[in-house]
Amino acid sequence: MDQRTAALQQAALEQLRIERAASNLSYMEIARRVEVSEKTVRRYFAGERDIPMPTLLQMLEAMGVSVQAFWERSVARIA
After folding, report:
1. Residue 1's pLDDT band (cuts 50, 70, 90)
2. Distance (Å, rounded) from C-alpha 48 to C-alpha 18?
3. SS in 3 state form for 6-29?
4. What is the pLDDT of residues 4-20, one digit of tens each?
5. Is the pLDDT of residue 39 over 90?
6. Integer Cα distance of 33 and 79 in angstroms
7. How far is CA 77 from CA 12, 20, 25, 64, in A?
């Protein structure tokens, strides 16, 4: 993985954490809405597991965040 890709991946993870905090959803509630275990969700947010794209899209939807807004905010973190 090149440096820019790694930076974008880290920025996206940081933005995902910010979006979760803003949504006031618990890990348990996100897990329920995307139909995975709470442990899996915690591992996603800790950066211990890669998030499959369909799951990421479901998580964003659960948090009320558009894909476009998430992407723009993530990219802005490294610009």
Report:
1. confident
2. 17
3. HHHHHHHHHHHHHHHHHHCCCHHH
4. 899 999 999 999 999 99
5. yes
6. 32
7. 8, 16, 23, 20
